[in-house]
Amino acid sequence: MKAEERRRELAAILMAEQKPVSGTVLAGRLGVSRQIIVKDIAALRTEGYEVRSLHHGYRIEEGPFKERVFKLHHTSGQTEEELSCIVGLGGTVVNVFVWHRVYGKVEADLNISSLYDVARFLDGIKSGKSTELMHITSGYHYHTVRAASEELLDLIGKMLQEKGYIVPEMGKPEESGIV
């Protein structure tokens, strides 16, 4: 993994966690030394991230990114194209969630920010041990997408719309796309 990809993954991990994450845990998750994590944290700070060093680890207070939730519908065969479109335009797929009539909101963190992450995710699905969360709602699902600007989120939305993946909202999320 290149340094830039690693830093994006590091930022995604820190933004997804509610509690501080230790340098040792980060180093283990990213397969590098703690010294590299310290250098990456410094680089993230120069990029505008407000990374705080706390007693129990690192935490991002606020990043330079914007987020938007997209309601989507497609088949399993289109998942790779959907995710690749998002990361190809510089977005990170933060999570996936669905609204279920019995369980309510069911959510999973993804933090997919590169084509490598897309391939890893798809390999996990293809192993046959699990299926995509969207299957419990007949293909309807939501992604929180993070990008560097509103303009990039607009481009991502436009691309997903052109592919036919965007579902027009009919009200609150819990009022549409429920199984």
SSE string, helix = H, strand = E? HHHEEEHEEHEH
Report the uncertain regions.
172-179
Helix fraction bin:
25-40%
Proportion of beta-strand residues = 15-25%
- Work out the radius of gyration: 17 Å
User: Which overall shape is indicated by the principal axes computed on the Cα atoms?
Assistant: globular
| Main sheet attributes: strand count, strand direction, barrel closure | 4 strands, antiparallel
Q: How would you sum up this structure, described in words?
A:
By secondary structure, the chain is of the alpha+beta class. It has helices at 3-16, 23-30, 34-46, 79-88, 115-126, 150-162; strands at 51-54, 57-60, 66-73, 92-100, 104-112, 140-147. The chain has a four-stranded antiparallel sheet. A two-stranded antiparallel ribbon has the order 1-2. It is globular and about 45 Å long. The model is unreliable at 172-179 (pLDDT under 50).
What descriptors fit this protein?
disordered C terminus; alpha+beta; four-stranded antiparallel beta sheet; globular; 179 residues; single chain
Task: Briefly summarize what is shown.
With 179 residues, the chain is α+β, with helices and mostly antiparallel strands. The protein has helices at 3-16, 23-30, 34-46, 79-88, 115-126, 150-162, and strands at 51-54, 57-60, 66-73, 92-100, 104-112, 140-147.
